[in-house]
Amino acid sequence: MKLTHKHRDIIIAWANGEKIQYKSCEKWFDIEWSPTWEKDVEYRIKPEVIRYRIGLHKNENTYWYVTAKNEEELEELESRTFFKKWITDWIEVEVQWHYQQNTLILTLSLLILNQR
Question: Is 12 helix (H, G, I), strand (E, B) or coil?
Answer without folding.
Answer: helix
